[in-house]
Amino acid sequence: MWPPLKASDMTRADAPVTPPVVLTVAGSDSGGGAGIQADVKTIEACDGFGTSAITSITAQNTTGVQGQHLLPIEQIEAQIEAVTEDFDVAAVKTGMLATSEVIDLVVAHAADLPNLVVDPVMVAASGDRLLAAEAEDAYESLIAEATVVTPNADEAAVLTGRDVDDPKTAERAGRDLIEMGADSALVKGGHVPGDTVVDTLVTEDGVTTFRHDRIDTEATHGSGCTLSSAIATQLAHGDDLSSAVGSGINLLASAVRYNVDVGEGPGAVQHLVQTRNDAARQPTSEAVERAVSALVDGDVSALVPDRGMTVAGATPYAERPDAVAAVEGRIARMTDGVRPNRGVRFGASTTVARALLAARERDPSIRFAVDCRLTNTVENALESLDGTIASYDAGERPDAVSADATAQWGVDRAFETSDGPPVAVVGRESMGNSGRVLLFAADADALISRVESVREGVGSNR
């Protein structure tokens, strides 16, 4: 038998990885929410290796830009050459270029800048100008080198002379940018009023629109930088343009909704939102398993519906059922108590997962849910809970809402009409279905405690 190896006897082999290299040519944001800082965070979050050429140093925070200093042209060029001569750069994005001289410098190196994403930064989210007025015309030569140019509505208006106030004018502005030489143009709709944000991707082959609900927040600092960096990194991975743009828009939508509340201003987008959400999958699954074990040990037979009980937990930034972990096959009543049919899996639940996501739309702090049977005894036991109890009647469900989406619709309605975020929602469902009780909580321990309170209330009222 071999003797055990000691740490001092071992030399471990390295295990290198080779992510695609992405270069950002942009300004530095001392506040960390935009510019080079946002770019590198986003590139790394999208599994790229971020490199940079800093054009300007800004004194900046969430309230605005207090000052900026343009680096000497030769220093900017030295950074670009240092990166392109050593690294196999797979994609490049530009941000704050500040002057026509810097724009001309990037154009001069365009042959060494593949998958060039041009974000024509002109004004910060705070309203502070980041591009000299004389440099606006210089952008046309850089646009001609772009794989995709990503202006917002205001920037598109400056570049094309065309006001952008709806998807049709966005499409026309995009075609103008292609006539300037760009391979494609993504005209962003964040600055266009409306409940829905419509981003318009125009190529020689056609037009693709991306729609998502507008987030009610002013914390959009760094949004343009994040989107263009995400698109560049996905192109570096070999994604086609439409997929790269769609992936970037999805990341940005989450980054804006789950923004970072830092500083005295509106705050910044959360560049690592998807990375942190993915990292939370295992702890979330383990929390659901812990809740299941507690409910099995506590024998919650009196609360288990005939169809079985579902315990579900969402990752911190869950937006879809595949980010919700649940008991596969539910918890069933047995002659000697209750037992889960199988283990915990993401995507195992539909009805309860969608109801949980509906609750999160109203209160994003909610992460866990369980469905219980609805009887008079159970409903009376809900009075033991410390919090608001709300309800819905499936008979009021609009025709446009399918029967499968009743619980999702009902939870949304209950939260909308409740005085505060309810801890329980009673669903009085259709004939032949006894309905359900959904309990919600911000963490697994709170969910366990609420189930135990209701179980004890049922026992005392028998």
- What Rg do the Cα atoms give? 27 Å
CATH topology of the largest domain: UDP-N-acetylmuramoyl-L-alanine:D-glutamate ligase
- Spans of at least 5 consecutive residues whose pLDDT stays below 50 are none
Shape: globular
CATH architecture of the largest domain: 3-Layer(aba) Sandwich
Please list the strands of the largest sheet in the order they lie side by side.
14-11-10-15-18-17-16
Give the beta-strand count: 18
Number of alpha- plus pi-helical segments: 14
Number of domains: 2
> What's the N-to-C terminus distance?
65 Å
Secondary-structure-based class equals: alpha/beta
* Main sheet: strands, sense, barrel: 7 strands, mixed
Domain Thiamine-phosphate synthase ThiN: 288-452
InterPro entries: Aldolase_II/adducin_N_sf, HMP/HMP-P_kinase_dom, PM/HMP-P_kinase-1, Ribokinase-like, ThiN
Domain Pyridoxamine kinase/Phosphomethylpyrimidine kinase: 29-269
GO biological process, one term: thiamine biosynthetic process
